[in-house]
Amino acid sequence: MDDSASGTQLPQELIDSILDNVYKQQDLRACALVARSFRLPSQRKLFEHLSLHPEALHGEPASIAHFERLHAIFIESPHLAKFVKSLDLRVLRAENLPLMETEVVLDILGALCNVVGLDIHAPTVKAPRLAAALVPMIGSAGLKTLSLRNDTDIQLLKAREGDLQTLRT
């Protein structure tokens, strides 16, 4: 953090230690605006875990507009998609599957290249485009934990050649 009066800068270790004690999303967003040295570490923490749930987003049903906003963020700042380490993909009602197979959602999934933990709670058997978009992520050597729930297509496991530390079904 630059102090305009003294021109001093906090060591990155101290900034990281401060952010390790910030848990609320709104507080992390504020930290990202404090100073340039806080921006990337705050963004990294903000985007570390991503949940794609069409049923509810902030207490209201998700619409394509919610996903378009996230997509626009990733287009404008592609480095943010690289911060996503954990993805929770959850579709509880079959009528929401078409939303998860839109180009916007498929593009979001395609931008996520550093996922190490993946939780799929969706009937991908009934969503072939969604399943196809998940294959590269599942086949990635970086993926360490995979949870398949509900009617997730077990054929997705055929994309997995590397060793998983954890597989939950």
From TrEMBL:
It comes from the Eukaryota. The lineage of its organism: Eukaryota, Fungi, Dikarya, Basidiomycota, Agaricomycotina. This is F-box domain-containing protein.
